[in-house]
Amino acid sequence: MATAEHVGRAPLKTRIGWVVTASAAGTVFEWYDFFIFGSLAAIIAKHFFTSAGDVQGYIFALLTFAAGFFVRPFGAVVFGHIGDRTGRKRAFLVTITIMGVATFAVGFLPDYNSIGLLAPWLLVLLRVAQGFAVGGEYGGAAIYVAEHASPANRGQATGWIQVSASLGLLLALGVIYVTRTTLGEDQFSDWGWRIPFLVSVLLLVISLWIRLQLDESPVFRRMQEEGQTSQAPLSEAFLQWPNLRLVLIVLFALLMGQGVVWYTAQFYTQFFLERVVKVEPATVNLLIMIITLVSAPLHMAFATISDRIGRKPVMLFGLGLAAVSFFPGFHLLTQAVNPALVSAAITSPVIVSADPANCSLQFDLIGRAQFKTSCDIARSALAKMGVPYHSENANPGAHTVVHVGSLPVESLDGRKLSPTELTKQRGYFETTLRDALRATGYPPVADPKAIDMMGALAALLVFIIAAAALYGPQAATLVELFPTRIRYSAMSVPYHVGVGWFGGFLPATAFAIVAATGNIYAGLWYPVIISGIGFLVTLFFLPETKGRDITS
User: Fold this and answer.
1) Integer Cα distance of 179 and 299 in angstroms
2) Per-residue pLDDT tens digits for 287-324
3) Would you report the helix, strand and coil content of the chain in percent, each value rounded to 5?
4) How far is CA 368 from CA 51, 60, 261, in A?
């Protein structure tokens, strides 16, 4: 009997292992593609948004990154329909092919200096193709694994899909780090940034071969043989109140929160370190790589714990930790990496005295605003330099003055200047402002010798623990909530609305808030408030799903 049991179980174990490996490997590649762009936003801004100015160009780059997130729900609609009607495997193969081709093409794309305005438009188009493909990826991989796994270990099995996102980011950061350190920063910024995009073609070939080896999900195949597949999965998922109610609960309880928590921990920390507190890019890559490596076992640990104590308490812990830790954590992070900035801001605070009527929220989605007032020029310069400041209302019509401690620096009004003269005068103003900042102790960049690496990693670890606790059990939870016939559509669309829209737009929104307010921590209100909402909705409305039968 022991032999018979052994013989009977081995093929099942082999099959589950292959399913998890194949699904996770393909997802690693998908996320590698998607993460490269976010990690290189600052360099991409210089190549494709040259005419927009430093601050607005950087925001444009972040918005182009976010454009991929904007279309993700539409990809989820299309591929969710394919997955629910014709099978999980077919949707798999299409998403990975689109993603791979679009990413590879970015590596060859001419920049603004070569083809002008056509360059950013083509970049946006390729980014949209990437996002559209990812819209069908996550749901398919999670469902495919969950429909093969045993109920007792479903969290652990789908946890590998969650880990694969971190591995994709780690791979992207690793390739960037090796390329950057091998070529040097100047050559990497000039042309070497293209290499990570071009390398993706090798991963595409490997991932396609792996996924071609897969069979269809047994749960879906059985439903298909019984003629139980949905003829209209979208209307069944979103126009029937019992299903729509679940969609809305998971959106507000988990997915909006997971979007902002995960992208704060993995992406906004990178933007904050590099752009706001001026840590050199290679050090930022190293910090994020280390913390991402740590996150992989954390995802698995929390996914496995959810198989024992339930999904809900683990995810509540992640949401609650994020809500209470972001503000103190980012303060500690700044102190660890740029203590001179913290000290200067205390001893010589910067105050922008301006007529409020001349101050804009420098967040222009269509690139038509000019931002030429004296207030906008002053605040843009301070944001570019990573200098925190306070605003002080001046009399109507008064000229903007930046007070750096006791040193006043008068801004300029560029509304009547020609583009050439505006560039020249803006350069004079920024030089004078830098001299005043330097004289009062503000560092132009973070001093590498003064960085407390352990302190920085400790702050980042708290954020990653919160993200992993929320993300680790999430795939199993989403699969367990929805019936098989509409599962792909019902979980994919809200996932990509919550994660794609609320999470994907976080870096651009948070940075614009920082640029507008002068408070380098003000952008954190966005993830903190949404995490708090997610905690309350999860606590009161989300059902526990551990151990549910998902075959019906």
Assistant:
1) 28
2) 988 998 898 899 999 999 999 999 999 999 999 999 99
3) 75, 5, 20
4) 12, 12, 32
Specify the amino acid at residue 525: W
d(CA 344, CA 498): 39
Amino acid found at 89:
K
**3 state DSSP class of 49:** coil
**Cβ–Cβ under 8 Å, residues 29 and 18:** no
In which region does residue 87 sit, left (phi positive, over 0), alpha (psi from -120 to 50) or beta (all else)?
left
How far is the C-alpha of 61 from the C-alpha of 313, rounded, in Å? 37
| Residue 408 backbone dihedrals phi, psi, to 5 degrees | -90, 140
Which ranges in 184-255 belong to alpha helices (H)?
185-187, 194-212, 218-225, 233-238, 241-250
Q: Average model confidence (pLDDT) for the chain?
A: 84
Query: Residues near 339 by Cβ (< 8 Å), separated by ≥ 6?
Result: 450, 452
Express each pLDDT in 44-57 by its tens digit.
878 887 665 555 56
Q: Which residues pair with 352 in a beta bridge?
A: 391, 402
Q: What is the DSSP secondary structure assignment for residue 39, as one 8-state letter? A: H
How far apart CA 136 and CA 53 sit, in angstroms, is: 35
Rounded (10°) CA dihedral 64, 70, 76, 77: -130
Smallest CA-to-CA distance from 123 within 112, 113, 133 is with 112
Phi, psi of 350 (to 5 degrees): -95, 130
C-alpha 380/C-alpha 382 separation (Å) is 6
What is the three-class DSSP state of 404? strand
Per-residue pLDDT tens over the stretch 352-380: 999 998 887 765 544 455 678 899 899 88
Contact 388, 338 (CB under 8 A): no
Token pair for 494: 């809200």
pTM: 0.81
What span, in angstroms and rounded, lies between the C-alpha atoms of 68 and 61?
12
Burial group, residue 169, by CB count within 10 angstroms (0-12, 13-18, 19+) = buried
Distance of CA 80 to the CA centre of its chain: 22
**Nearest CA-CA partner of 195 in 48, 25, 62, 43:** 43
- Going by their DSSP bridges, the two strands 407-410 and 350-354 should be labelled as unpaired
Longest dimension (CA), the chain: 91
The model's confidence at residue 29, banded by pLDDT at 50, 70 and 90, is confident
